[in-house]
Amino acid sequence: MSAGADLRLTGPGKLDLAEARPPSAPLGPDDVLVEVDRITLCGSDHALYAGSYGGPSSYPLRFGHEWSGRVLDAGANGRALLGRWVTGDCSRWCGACPRCATDRNVCERIEKFGLTVDGFSTRLRTVDRRYLYADTHDLGPGLLALSEFFAVADHGLRRVDPKPEDRVLVIGAGALGLASYLLLTGAYGVGPVELLEADPAKAAAVAALLPSAPVRTVEPEAQGDPAGGGYAALTAGARYALTVDCSSGAGGLTTALTAAAPCGRVLCFGLRRSEALRTDLLVAKALTLVGSIGGTGSFVRVQEFLAGHREQASRLITHRLPAERAADAFELDPRTRIKIQLLFGEEPR
Hints:
Elements: E1 5-11, E2 14-19, E3 31-40, H1 43-50, E4 67-74, E5 85-88, E6 91-92, H2 98-102, E7 111-112, E8 124-128, E9 132-134, H3 140-144, H4 147-160, E10 168-171, H5 175-186, E11 193-196, H6 200-209, E12 215-216, H7 226-229, E13 240-245, H8 252-259, E14 260-268, H9 279-284, E15 288-291, H10 299-308, H11 310-314, E16 317-322, H12 326-330, E17 339-343
Parallel strand pairs: 10-11, 10-13, 11-12, 13-14, 14-15, 16-17
Antiparallel strand pairs: 1-2, 3-4, 3-8, 3-17, 4-5, 5-9, 6-7
């Protein structure tokens, strides 16, 4: 059993680095001991480090809920996972409440790995086998550690049922926006799909990573004042059957509502609070607004997708750094990074 880094956020901008130690308690029947190979930083990890995360969270905390690792030991019920490469849920669900019967991501007793309870920013981590997914497509640790955020994108997209004939606008060309774009075009057969990224530097970086992705920096036309132009003014420039808000800014949802065609669907990711919701657009255009959180239920689907789109998906990993350089990773320019992986092991893939 190898030693390695153990990282904890003790507060905004405060990282504690120690040596990972084997668990002192014996494994329960459903416990699995994982040797973490890497974590992929999520936008929420960056926000936790900056002290700007808008959802429930706590310090001190081992961050990281996008990860891959190898099973070193297991209790009686987890023996089938011994030696396997695995990744896991961000949602820690109970599996017994009425909400879990509908969507385990909104469990009545939900906790979030790396946000409200310890995540995987450590070399050695014990976790219940129910939250794990084995690598059944030989993805390798690099691609496997992309499973969670692709699962988040897929879980949301399934809720709005994309059709091949839909015209779609994805707002925000960060990791979740790019995962949504790749899934829409590669798994759902949708076209055309456009990407909107307000930051020209980020848009240029994305265009270099995915030359086939149509990235625009100019927002759709703003709706006029209904008092001056009537109800028709509320639909000016509205031509997308589906808009997907993957932005980190407060105006992303307004843009999504603005661009959505009458009777269209609007999918919103992210935990942002805003009092500026354009309910006039929502109501006058009879839009369906859907929020989505978590990826539980989509891991099997997205691992199959990643296996068939290895080259495109791997482009989203723009930086790899050893875990000991986590502070440097958090300081990388957000305009040029997409996904950063912190390496706890020595696997090259």
